[in-house]
Amino acid sequence: MVLSTLPIDERDGKIRALPEAILGRRAFIDMAPVLMNKKRTYAIRVSRSKRHTITFEHLSGKFHMPMAAASKSLAVSKSTLKLRCRELGILVWPYRKLSSLEKLIDKVVELAHPGFQFIVCNIRQEIEAIKMNPSLKIKNETECLRRAMYDLHYKKRRDDSRVAN
Length: 165
Known about the structure:
Elements lengths: L24 H29 L2 H5 L6 H7 L4 H11 L6 H17 L5 H16 L7 H25 L1
Protein name: Plant regulator RWP-RK
GO molecular function, one term: DNA binding
Function: Putative transcription factor.
């Protein structure tokens, strides 16, 4: 028996009571997608309502985490989190940008030069600005410093590997 031939009540979408002879095994199999679709619709409705309760303040507290960990801590799926981010104007999750700046601070502090305190202060201000507006790009001076620090550490690793060989 095909699903379209089953007498479905228009008001609630349930199948009206039929004798067991008419509702055989085939009818139950054909009805499975309808039942799954109802569960799916309910799940979509629940996720939409949860999604709209997430505010920018909730998200900004999770920027230091990867997106998967943030979605788990907010008890929503990663896709739902992405949708809400797009609705709030966050096009890219800022975790990698922020972690890169934090690593840059660690590398600058590792040099322990007294003149670098000003640079660390500027980077911390930039981190706070990115937390307020994740769409901001990293300043040119910071990018140049990041490249210079990378080159410095690369040369140090290269020289260490040459000495070891």
